[in-house]
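User: Sequence in, structure out. Go.
Assistant: Echoing your sequence, followed by the structure tokens.
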Amino acid sequence: MRIERRGRPSARRVALGALGAGLLMLLLGSLLIAVAGAPVAAGWAALARGAFGSRLAISEVLTRSTPLILTGLACAVAFRARLWNIGAEGQFYAGALVAAALGGGGTALPAGLLMPLLLIAGALGGGLYLLGPAMLKHWANVDDVVTTLLLNFVMLLLVSLLIQGPLRDPLSLGWPQTEPVADAAMLPKLLAQTRLHAGLLIALGCALLAALVESRSAFGLQRRAVGHNPAAARFAGISTTRVVLGTALASGGLAGLAGAVEVMGLRGYVTGDLSPGFGYTGVIVAMLARLHPGAVPPAAFLVAAVFVGADAMGRAFNVPSYLADVMVALSLFAMLATTFVLTYRIRR
């Protein structure tokens, strides 16, 4: 008995696989709700109402989706080129720090200049933070999973140092934070009396651009070639160095942009708890999207809906709030299981 790879799956098999993953997720989620002590049907209903039951609920899901779209894109872009970027969390904070440092309240630039400047600077901060691990992997064969993961903790310590030292807001009497960015740097709201901001449009625009680059550009083709077989790509005349470094800048830049957008759209400043794990959740979003940039926004929306809806379910039935994290993780396992069935078969 052996495991062998199937041919390219048909659209029908892919659709059945997605349906199977959804049903498996519903089953596992129902078991979790029951174990938590809540009625299953009423629990799912409370989750749905919490995520989609009102204009405010939907706006909260979209708001939570915004950084997840960008960190999901960051992981998808890197993974397709076999650059295993597990450091989107650190790159997120790098972009947030750069945006907060440059956009302090004393900045006198008009909004039309300040906003794009801070967004570009945040993206550049995240991209440069990934450049080191990418170069170490390319030239010294250092494990990129280890370097990118460990740099998350380095960045968190750096954030803690800066917000309690050089970048601390002197007017902050409580939790350490940076000085708030100028009002001109704050992204406009998309809906009145909600937290939904223009960062959503930026994230969707990045998803569209990434999908076009991946499917319609020479660089996208080169990235896929390097991801499948670097030696063959070099033999074909592709500069693997340029592709690896370009991928690192793009991937880290998207994660850094997520940090800048979060600061400029919601908080206005950086604290040690700015991210509840957006970078790590981005890995799940990318995998749920099967690394396709165009599928990242709906995957991020689904994950955000689970988080927002689970909060409502927790308030209704007094179940733990971390139930959402377990459900999102199980959705990834369900997708991986169906992907394995679609990709491989057992031969006797």
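User: And one key feature?
Assistant: The radius of gyration is 21 Å.
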